């Protein structure tokens, strides 16, 4: 768990891209590029995994390089013996249902 000061919190509020609504991927990537060109070291904070994925995809497209997608499929039955499967499935479900991994926001 981390703590930030009131001053740092105010600074983050001041640098927020879109107040009162979620910033679009385009707004985020344009702001990042502008800050990067100005010699700053921008950091993108997003509230959930879905938006993180969208931002990552947009930023990769901006590079102009070919993006190769490699799909990885987690299948528990390929790495776990059948006797342990119920325990592993229960632990996997608990992790997937854990809202603390997305700051309590939607997945």
Question: Would you give an account of this structure?
Answer:
With 107 residues, the chain is mainly α. It has a domain at 6-62. Helix content is 45%, strand content 0%. The protein is built from four helices and no strands. Helix 2 packs across helix 3. The longest helix has 14 residues, at 49-62. The radius of gyration is 19 Å and the shape is flat. The model has no long low-confidence stretch (mean pLDDT 80).
Give the helices and strands, then pairings:
Elements: H1 6-14, H2 25-37, H3 49-62, H4 85-96
**Helical stretch count?**
4
Q: Tell me, what's the shape?
A: flat
Order of SSEs: HHHH
Q: Can you count the beta strands?
A: 0
Largest sheet: none
What proportion strand?
under 5%
Low-confidence spans: none
Helix content: 40-55%
Q: Structural class, from helix and strand content?
A: mainly alpha
Q: What's the Cα radius of gyration? A: 19 Å
Amino- and carboxy-terminal Cα gap:
20 Å
Mean pLDDT: 80
């Amino acid at each position: 768990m981390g703590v930030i000061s009131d001053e740092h919190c105010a600074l983050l509020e001041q640098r927020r891209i879109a107040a009162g609504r979620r910033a679009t991927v385009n707004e985020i990537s344009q702001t990042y590029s502008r800050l990067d060109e100005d010699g700053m070291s921008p950091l993108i904070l997003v509230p959930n995994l879905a938006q993180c994925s969208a931002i990552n995809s947009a930023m990769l497209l901006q590079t102009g390089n070919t993006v190769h997608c490699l799909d990885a499929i987690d299948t528990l039955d390929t790495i776990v013996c059948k006797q342990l499967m119920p325990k592993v499935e229960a632990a996997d479900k608990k992790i997937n249902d854990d809202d603390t991994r997305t700051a309590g926001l939607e997945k």
